User: What shape does this take?
Amino acid sequence: NALVTKIKEQRITEKIQPVNVWVIDAAETPEYPAKPRKKLNILLGIFFGIFGGIGLAFFIEYLDNTIKSSEDVEENLHIPVLGVIPFSKIKNQRIENVVVDEPASLITENYRALRTSVMLCSAEKPPQTILVTSMASGEGKTTTAANLAFTIAKTGKNVLLVDGDLRRPRLHKVFNLENTSGLSTFLSGVSSGDILQKSSVGNLSIMTSGPIPPIPSELLNSVRMEKLVKTLSTKFDHIIFDSAPVLSVTDSQILTRFIDSIIVVARAGHTTYEAARKGLKILKEIEPHPIGMVINAVDTKRGWINHYYGYDGYCSRVADDS
Ligand SMILES: Nc1ncnc2c1ncn2[C@@H]1O[C@H](COP(=O)(O)OP(=O)(O)OP(=O)(O)O)[C@@H](O)[C@H]1O
Ligand SMILES: [Mg+2]
Assistant: This one.
C-alpha cells in the first residue's frame, strides 16, 4: 500500500512540473549532406596540389648542386665560361662529329663560338697546345676535344688531335680508326714514328691512344712524351689533347706539363659545384691555369642557355665587343 501511494504521489508531481522544452523551428530534411564538403575539399586539393608541387620543385632545385648556367659558374667558380654546348637530342646523330655532319646546326654554331673564345683567350697568341679535361668521366671531354679540333681545322689550320686518355680511350672509335699503334706504343718505344692518321677533314690528323698500357701515368710522365710534344709543336698549328678525368687519376695533371692551355668541361645537371671546386683547386695548383670552362649538354628547354647562338660567356663577350 505504501508503495502504491508513493507511485501515485510521484505521478502527480510529474504532471504538476512544467516542461521547459518547446519547438522553435520544425526540423527540415537537408537537401545536401553536411559532410564531406566536396567543393571545399576540391578547392583545397587544387590549392595544395599546385602550391605544394611548386614548393617541392623549388626545394628539389635548391638541393640540386649541379652546374647549370654560365652566370652561376662565373659567380661561384670564378672561371670564365668559354662556351655553352646544348644537349643533343637528335637520334642516331653522333655528337662527336656534329661539326662535320651538321654544319648548319645550333650545336655546331656553339662549337664555333667556343673556338672563337679559345682563340681569343690567350693574351699574346692563340694557344697552340690545348688539354681538354673534366672532373669526372662521361662529362664530354672526348666530344668537346673532337668538335673543337674539327672547327679549328675548318679554318684552314693544321690541327692534331691526340688521345691522351690512356685509360678509357675513345677517339679511334669516334673516327673509326685502327688503334694497334698510337701514343702508348710510341711512348713505350714499340713504334718509332708513323703513328699519325688522317681524318675526314684533310688538315686534321689524329693520334690514337694505342693499346691501353699497364701504368699510363708513367708513360705520360716520360722524357719521350716531352720530346714528342716539342717535335709535334713544330709541325702543327694546334694540338688538342683528350684526357682522363682530373678527380680520378693524375694523368691530366701530368699532361699539363707539356701544354700551354687547359679547358675544363662540365656537364650541365651532372657536374656538381663541389666536384668542380675540387678539380679546379687541383688544376690551379699547377701551371698553366685553366683558361676557362665549357658547359656541355645544356638543356635548352629548361632555360639553362641564355643566348640563342651561344655567344655566351666571358671570352665570347670580349670577342663580340672587339
Ligand atoms: N652535348 C651533348 N649532347 C648529347 N650527348 C652528349 C653531349 N656531349 C656528350 N654526349 C654523350 O655523352 C657521352 C659521354 O661523352 P664523352 O665520351 O665525350 O665524355 P668523356 O668525358 O670523354 O667520357 P670519359 O671520361 O669516359 O672519357 C657520349 O655518349 C656522348 O655521345
Ligand atoms: Mg673520353
User: Anything to note?
Assistant: The beta strands are 81-86, 129-134, 159-163, 197-198, 204-207, 238-242, 261-267, 290-298. Confidence is low (pLDDT under 50) at residues 307-322. The domain at 67-321 is CATH 3.40.50.300 (Rossmann fold). The first strand starts at residue 81 and ends at 86.
